[in-house]
Each structure stands twice: as C-alpha cells, then as structure tokens.
Amino acid sequence: MKLTLKVWRQANRTAKGKMETYQIDEVSPDMSFLEMMDMLNQQLMSQGIEPVAFDHDCREGICGMCSMFINGEAHGPDRLVTTCQLHMRKFKDGDTITIEPFRANAFPVIRDLVVDRTAFDRIQHAGGFISVNTSGNTQDANAIPINKTDADHAFDAATCIGCGACVATCKNASAMLFVSAKVSQYALLPQGKVEATERVVNMVKQMDEEGFGNCTNTGACEVECPKGISLENIARMNREYLSASLKG
Amino acid sequence: MSVFTSSIGRKIAMALSGLFLILFLTQHFAINITSVFSEALFNQLSHFMGNNPIVQFVFQPLLIFGVLFHFIMGFVLELKNRGARQKAYSQFKGSANASWPSRNMIISGLVVLSFLALHFYDFWIPEMNYKYVEVLPLNETRYFEEMVHKFESPVRVGLYVLSFFFLALHLHHGFSSSFQSMGANNKYTQAIKPLTTAFAVLIPLGFVFIAIYHHLTAF
Amino acid sequence: MATLDSKIPKGPLAEKWTQHKSNINLVSPANKRLIDIIVVGTGLAGASASATLAELGYNVKSFCFQDSPRRAHSIAAQGGINAAKNYQGDGDSTHRLFYDTIKGGDYRSREANVYRLAEVSTNIIDQCVAQGVPFARDYGGLLDNRSFGGVLVSRTFYAKGQTGQQLLLGAYSAMNRQIGRGKIKMYNRHEMMDLVVIDGKARGIIARNLVTGEIERHAAHAVVIASGGYGNVFFLSTNAMGSNVSAAWKIHKKGAHFANPCFTQIHPTCIPVSGEHQSKLTLMSESLRNDGRIWVPKKIEDVKAIREGKLKPTQIAEEDRDYYLERRYPAFGNLVPRDVASRAAKERCDAGYGVNATGEAVYLDFSSAIIRYGKEQAHVKGMDENDAALVKKLGQEVVRSKYGNLFQMYEKIVDQNPYETPMMIYPAVHYTMGGVWVDYNLMTSIPGCYAIGEANFSDHGANRLGASALMQGLADGYFVLPYTIGDYLADDIRTGRIDTEHPEFEKAEAGVKAQLEAFINAKGKQPVDYYHRQLGKIMWNQCGMSRNEKGLKQAIKDIHDLREDFYKNVNVPGGTNEFNEELAKAGRVADFLELGELFAKDALERTESCGGHFREESQTPEGEALRDDKNFTYVAAWEYKGDPSKAQLHKEVLKYEEIEIKTRSYK
Fold first, then answer.
1. Is C338 a catalytic residue?
2. Complex prediction ipTM
3. pLDDT tens across C236-251, in order?
4. B85 → chain A, closest CA residue
5. Has residue C595 been placed in a domain?
6. Contacts B84 to A, Cβ<8 Å
7. Which of C108, C110, C338, C615 is an active site residue?
8. CA–CA distance from C495 to each of C56, C203, C217, C485 (Å)?
9. Which terminus in chain A has less CB density within 10 A, N or C?
10. Do A45 and C134 touch (CB under 8 A)?
11. Which domains occur in chain B, in start order?
C-alpha cells in the first residue's frame, strides 16, 4: 500500500508544532499501525529527518501507553482496540491518514505524538486505592463472599487501561469515564465500600483541578474506549458523588 | 453539595433544572392542546394560570429562575468545556461516536432560547403589560383569540416549527441524559430510553400540530 | 572457581523462613524515616516492594521508564497466579506447590527460596483481595480456580485473561496510597543509567530524565532492581518494546553476578511471525491448551497444499492429522510444560510440517472442544445433541465465554476467525528464568543492592511453570524483600544522608554522559533497530529452542563482531538533552549486545539439557532433554571482568535436602 501521512510534529512542550506530510510506500496490510510508524521512522532517519516520537510499549493492547488520534478518532477507526492492535488492513491503498496526539489541556504534548498523562496518576493518588496495609495479615481471601455479578462488574470496570482515549475523544476533554471506572471498581466491592465517600469526593476534586472538561453524556468515550468501559460507571460515580455529598 | 464548583455537581444541577423545565413543558402542552378541541376550556385554564396568585407569584418566578439557571449554567459549562481543549484537532470525527444532538446541545439550546425570546415578546410581555402595567379589566375569554391571532402569520408558524424541531433535538439528548447525570443508569435504562425519545418527538410534534392547526383553521 | 554463599538459613526446610524472619535485624520505625531506598522498575515486584517499604516507613524513590508505573509489562500477564490455598480440596498444599515448582524447573532452582515462595503464596491472594483485586468468582461468591500446565491440581487464581493487569493495578493502587502520603517519590519516564557504588556498597543511581534528557543523581542507602527479564535480547519476544536488561546489566558491570543467563522460556502458544516488519510477538495464554488440541498434517503433501492455499485445515480428515503432543506424551497430552511443548512444535516444523508460508506454525484447534461443550450444553438444555449446527453454536458460546478476549485478539491480529478455523501458533521467547544472582535475602553480590522478580534468577530453575511469575513477583515485593532488607539496613541507621557530590557519583555520571555522547557522535549508517534485529536473529538461530556447541561458538563470535560494528556504525539522530527514543534504545541495545554474548557463553558451558535449555548433544534416543545432574547441579553465576568473554564463572552448588532428584517425565 502507498499512503500519505499527515503527522503532528512538535519538538518539545513549549514549541509551536505543525502538521507535516510524508509519503510511505510498500506498507503491508498485515502490519500493525505502530509497525507502519516504525517503518516511517526508519525511512525518515535514512533521509536525515528526526523520527516521529510516539508512545508505545506492550503492543498487545493492555499497557495503555499508545495514544494516537488517527483520522479524527482516538486509536483510529477500528473498535475495541488500541492503536497497537489496529492493523493496516483497515486502510486502503492511496489513503491519506491524519495522525495527531491526544489533545486536552490536561494532557500537554511532550513531543510529536507523545503526551503527558500524569494527570491520571494524580487522580489515582487522591483516592484510587483501598487503605489496607500490604502486610499480608489480612483475613482469608474467602472470608467475605462477593456476589458474582458485582465481582464481574467490578472486574469490567477494572479493565480500564488508563490510555486516555476517553479524554481525547470527548468533545469536552472530560475524564469521567476513566475516573468512574476506578470509583466503580471499588464501590462495587465490600472492601472498597469503607472509604467510598472520601474516595469519590477526593478523586472528583482532583479531576476538576487537573482541568478536564465536564461530562455532557455524549457517550463518545464508551464507543472509543478500547476496553469497552460502560457509561454505567459514570452513572454510578454520579450516584456515589450525590450520596457522598448528601452525607456531607 | 458544591453545585457550582464541582463538575458532577454542575452536571446534576443541569439535569435537575432540565427535568423541571420538561415538567413545565408537559404542563404547557397539556393546556395548549385543549385549544384544539375546546376554546372554552382553553380560556378557562389560561385564565387560571394567568391570575392564580400561586402560579403567578410562586411558580412563575421559579420557572424564570429555572430557565435562567439552565441557560446560564449551560453557557458556563460550554465555555469551560471548550476551554478544556485549547488546541483543537485538525481532524475530529465527532459523528463516528456520538449523535449530533448530544454534541450540539448549545446550538439546539440557543435556538430554543431565541424562540423563548420571541415567545416572551409574543405572549408574556403583552400579558404582563395587560395585567400589571396598564391594568386592563379582566377578560376571561380573550386568550384563545389572542393565540389564534399570533398563528396567522406563516413566518411565525415557520419559526415555531423550526424551533420545536430543535427543541426535539435538545430533548432527545437532554431528557434521557438527565437520568444518567443523576446516576440512574441501570436495569430500567432500557425502558427509560424509548420513553424519553417518544417524549422528545411527540411533545414538540404536538406543539407544532397546534400551531399549524390554528394557522390553517383561522379565517 | 570460587563458590558462592547463598546464606540459606539453617534448620528444617519448612521452618527456615519463619525462623529467619525472627532472627534477622530490624530497623526501628524512627530510624526507617532516616533511610532512603531506590526501587528501579514498577512491575509486580517493584510496585509491591515500593508500596510495602514506604508503608514500613522508609523513604522510597521509584523509577520507571514508562509514563506511569501502571504500564510495566507485568500488566500483560494473562493466565493467572498460583497459590497453595487448596480451596478446591484437590490435595494441594505448600509442599505440593513447592515440589511442582522444583520439578517444573528441572531441578535447577534453589530449594529454600522455592519453599518460601510456596509458603507465602497464600498471603498474596489474601492481600490482593483486601486491596480490591477482582478475581474470578463462582456463583457462591467464592474465588474460582483453574488448572495450568505441568500440574495435577487447580490452584491458579485468575481474572479472566487479564490477571497480570489486575494484580499490577492492585500493587499500583498500594503505591498510589503511599505517593499520596508523600512516602514514595515517583520518577516516571526516567531510566536508570548506572549504579553508584561507594566503599563497596550500593549508594545510589544515575538516572536520565527521558523527557528532558537531563542526567540526575539519586542517592540511597539501598538500591532494589526490579526491572524484569531480558527476553528482548531476542528482538522478537512477547516482552514489551521497552523491556530491557540495562538496569540488571549495569549492576552486573558494577559487581553483581549474573546467573544462568541461558535459561530462557520459549512459550509454545504465540501468534507466529508474519513478516520482516514484525516488531513483537503476541502470546496466547497457556489456558488455551486446556481445550485446544495441537496438530500438524501427517502427510507432507497436505502441508504443501496448505501453504499454497489450495487446502484448508478444516478439510483435512481426522486420520490425516498428527496430534503430536497427545502421541508423544499421553499422560499430560496438550498440557505438558512449556519447554516440552515448544520443542515438540519445533521438531515438527523442522521436519517440514509447519503450516504457514514461513513453515513455522502449528495448529491449535478448538473444534473438538466446541463439539464436546456443544453436546454437553444441548444435553443440559434438553435439545437435540445430533443437530450439528446447534451443537456448534452452543459449543462456540461456551468457548467464547472462556476465551473470548483471546480469540478476539487473535482475530484482530491475524484476520482469521478462530471459531471457524484452527489458530496458528508458534513458540516465542517469553520469560527469562536466569537473572541477577541473589542470596536468600535477595541481595546481589553487591552489598545493599537487591534484585527481585524476574530480574533475579532464584525461583524457577531452568523452566518456569505457568502462573508462577506473578506469584514470585508479588512474593518478593510484598513479603520477602521488606523483611530481609532490614537486616542489611540495620547497620546503616547512623550513615546519614548520602552525598551526591561524592566522587563516585561524579565518575558514574561522567561515564554515562560519555556513552550517550558517543552514540550521538557515531553518526553511522545503521539505525539502532538494525542491530537489535541482527542480534535477535543470531540469538534465535543459535541460542533458541535448541543449541549446539558449533552454533554457540559461532554466536559468540557473531555477537562480538556485531557489537564492534554497532559502536562504529550506529546512527542515533537528535541530541542528548531532549526526548530521544532512539538514544534510549541505543543504550538498551548496547547492553543486550553484551548480555547476548554472556548468554551464549553460559549455554556453551552447560553441556547438559535441562528445562528451557536444550543442548542437541545431550538428549535421549527419543529426543527428550537429558540432564547431567552429576556435573551440572549448580547455578552458574558469572562475574563481570571487563568484557563478556572474560566473565568468570562462580558455582553455587544446589543441594536438595527435602526432595529426590528425578528424571522429569510427562509421558
């Protein structure tokens, strides 16, 4: 396949970036999108151009590091995949592909397609945990049976990979899906209920301070989420927040 | 609850004020539809609404507050949300993952707001003038005539139809969305969705029907 | 050759750990506040160690090269975590888990460490549940288990096909709590460039901020390396792209012995290589072998027809299929341990029976399982068991509920529907049992420098059993290191702050800077990836699933030559003071180019076959691995002497008090 790539180039956090256009040939449909980017970088280096910086690590859709906005969509046109699992067979010979970094004030660009998502970490520091010491001297794992449905829902929420596609794709750059997934996981488990009130209040507070937008329920995040995290989690967080606020 | 400061607080406030306006809309429709089959009943109800002190001095200010709150908060949120991504994408395929109404509540909202201005100009200001400024004598049968008179102009009816189309879009997202905002997304959601959609289509359609009906039956 | 002191406590095996814990030195809570510990890596071992050390009161500095600690490659572990809970009442016990792990490791692991691992395994599950890890549960609300290769009980706890993710997020949450409290200072996007040793003790590291390129000095009273394995020395592996040996290799060069580098696990069920562009390999969980049957065609003409696309695997009659694992190993069948399954696949492909264009793939077929489950479901639901279409539909639903996410992953990558046509799989490098040599306290041969998790060598011998890596990572981090490190640090309470202006820091920093400049200034023709791929090819061809003297000698020479060429001709664009991924990669590949040579040297030295290390010269007439217990019941710990070729061998002789060494048989 022969492709035209329009790629965002930005030297560092403060530089003013711009889109650059590159041609690439002999792309195999069996390549993953990132392998195509590898190929582009080899080509650029052989021409004396600095390679395009992009985040990636596991390349099997679980670490959440890859993060491109491809043809107007987070992780590209395919559903339930991250960019590393997107394959070139989803594109046609002669296509023009626009590749941009995830954009949000809370995700400043570090270089080219690499963005800083530590805002997510800071939200987790504010309450994304259960305050139990790691001594191992807890009660037996089977001491509290947990209803299978709750356990399964907690698991579904916990599969969030923290990639930031929800923020990138939301017209408001809202982080609600991410935060709600963590709040939900713990809210659904008896172990997490003890601190549920403080957790939701603190995490939402931090989320707001990071400069994410507000949720307007467009549902775009759920569609673009590579792990299919459900909007039900956002509703659950709203509920948790409401009840936490009413409790004072 | 920190309604004005936290993102979720604002979201819940939007939902509550929206639901309040939906309630008002339903009530408004219930009265208006009577005009199609009974001039007398319509006049009677309008007179009650226009002169009952509780309606006038409790509900009316509440309604005005509700409208203003929903509008101002909506506007504030829109500005904040736009500000959350100062550098825009060069390509953003919003239609790939969200419906047009959900992404453009500000547009449908502004259309509805402009309509409200017209509506106030048409009905509310003359009404206030009649009752409180000029203090004209009570006339329990004037309402139907006044309304029909307004629908004589095809331009106004056209604007009316257009506005209600946008109201339908606004409701289509807003009504079901308000449940999500308040945390109700559960086993009943499957049932709520069709109901809110039906409401969003039928109520504006009903208003449009009333307008066209009077436009066509006048003279 | 010197021998090594593994510091195994005296006393009966089952009481060693308890007694040791009671006897070692402690640091008082007030003094812990005065002590700094650096942890490099935030996978299961690093994250759990950071969290626990911080909770105990130490000041922890954690480093990871990823943008968040949550992204460490432990996250990709699929199948599960073992623990001797015996919740299923199927006869499991600490001793059985210990025995299975020693046997699975082909009697090349340290008995006392493995016993301790089995002992603390149950605490891990309790701990994780308390942290909110959503393990799979049955309808009664209790924890569910499944079975893995090489064992006869169900002791594997799991969270669908994402157990590693859930456990890592649990450890990450424990870290978050401590970061929020200010007890851990987190350094994301930082790479450890060197270890600083002062007066023979590990006293800090030199790190590079990967965003700004700035070189930083970080001092501490102890340094913990939890940087994972070195599977990426093969270029293509199931490791993450960034997984590297550098932290472990840097401490090796500063005096830590490197043990058994040639013990590498080649996982039998991975998606085969599709072309030259390939950047990494994707694992398909071992759990698939519970229901999938592995085969190749019996007739070579069928193989040819398949490769030419004239024949589909579903068209080959049952009697023309060779279910080679079931044929060779009737007792364990498709659930033989990983090393055995991988070698058997290679044997068939080498004989010309590989089923894809490259000749390196075998089938993993679920059609029997689909029919079996379908009939079962039809029976349960009172439907017609002879309706083939119905049975297939019901069976596919069962398979989807068990392995749905894996099947989806396969389909996304290969573009074939595994419900309809058999999967194609081939072995790939997955895990490295070898690593930094540590004593019973997990301390390396540098005082104050520790290695935990996959980075050390201690628990898996020559082959690791499925679902044991997660167990070891968390055991080391949560329950072992936090105790044993106190024994060393008890002597350090009066040391005070370590000065980063010390000449050793300056020297280390200067060395790091010089190397980075050298990469930039080489201005050669070939990109870093070229060298990494070349190295990977040498490693895979000569040090892969089977090894021989001639090939290993060739590999040593080839790697040496490649390394020389690398320093002369590598092309690293950009500068040192910026975000520069090529520069970061260059440093990692430079270390792989040294490790690779030591790897081959170790493989050459060990003329026996054991576990994942198969020497063609040492096999039974049936082609099974043949151990040489008389000469090789030891850990080969290599000391750095200025160049990998000059590395000096130290032997830690393995003594088995509790168990009898037997020939490993799965027939």
1. yes
2. 0.98
3. 999 999 999 999 999 9
4. A104
5. yes
6. 104-106, 172-174, 211-213
7. C338
8. 19, 11, 18, 16
9. C
10. no
11. 7-84+99-217 (1.20.1300.10)
